[in-house]
Amino acid sequence: MKQQLSILIPTYNNPCVALVRQLLQQAEAIDELSYEIIVADDASTDANVVSQNQALRTLPHTVYIEFGHNVGRAAIRNRLVQAATHPWLLFIDSGMGITPHLLRRYLNTPGDLICGGYRVEGDARQLHSNLRYLYEKHAEPRQVARRRQQHPYWDFHACNFLVSRPIMLRHPFNEQFRHYGYEDVFLGRQLESAHIPITHIDNPVLFNEFEPNHLFLAKTEEGLRTLHAFRRELQGHSRLLALTALLRRSHLMTPLLSFYAHKKDGWKHRLIGSHPSLYIFALYKTGYLLQLENL
């Protein structure tokens, strides 16, 4: 069993006290475990969240770091690695919930890099109009370990993984990824190039917070801009890039761009409304990326 663990939580505008208390409870139940929990706030702008998270300073085994300016999604993870004092690192995103025995399962699993995946929670009757919930629920079957292990580097997600600290020091997150999306996809590519094995197991965190449709769509657009900016580096590691390349080779880009220009406002209205469609969401993303590639 791995007996020295740093639990690393990057956060931005998310309250973390309940999550940290749950992790403390699990860690205290494991005999002879030496551990710390480090939460790094990337200059949150929500004053209420910042105030709530001040309570982290009073919790045992917990270090709370506040950055005075936003350093970005990749850099904050690297800063957490540098701050860690133990040889094993567990990354958990601040917006997630945790399952019972999550720490114990990780510590008892052999391997130097282990991904636990995530599971979607929520009442479908109440969330039937939430685009993020519908999207994540549709993708959930691909989150089982046997599916992820078929493409271990493509399906590497930074929201929930255990790794040895030396690996992360040799292969840090690329700090050019400052905006939303794909910093973990690029790291997966680096790990593949370095021939570092990834073990996927069923040890999920819980995806149970779903932003309003307009915010999720804006976040999706930001992610697509990131994908476009790093399209050369991410080639071969993005299904959407592969699709747009196929459309270009098939000489379909021009008619599809015309179709997108005609439909995008109506699609956007539908997606941020009370009856979003995953089919329209897929069309919107494809058209948005094609438009970026045509600029």
Describe it for me?
This protein is of the alpha/beta class and 295 residues long. 47% of the residues lie in helices and 15% in strands. The strands form 2 sheets. The chain has a 7-stranded mixed sheet with strand order 3-2-1-4-8-6-9, sandwiched between helices. It has a 3-stranded mixed sheet with strand order 5-10-7. Helix 2 links the parallel strand 2 and strand 3 (62-66). Helix 10 (213-229) runs parallel beside helix 14 and helix 13 (253-272) crosses helix 14. The chain starts with a strand and ends with a helix. The mean pLDDT is 95.
How far is the N terminus from the C terminus? Answer: 53 Å
Order of helices and strands: EHEHEHEEHEEHHHEHHEEHHHHH
Total DSSP E strands: 10
Radius of gyration: 20 Å
Please give the order of strands in the largest beta sheet. Answer: 3-2-1-4-8-6-9
Residue-averaged pLDDT, rounded? 95
Dominant shape: globular
Number of helices: 14
Q: What percent of residues are in strands?
A: 15-25%
Structural class: alpha/beta
Helix content bin: 40-55%
Low-pLDDT sequence parts: none
The biggest sheet, with number of strands, parallel, antiparallel or mixed sense and barrel status, is: 7 strands, mixed
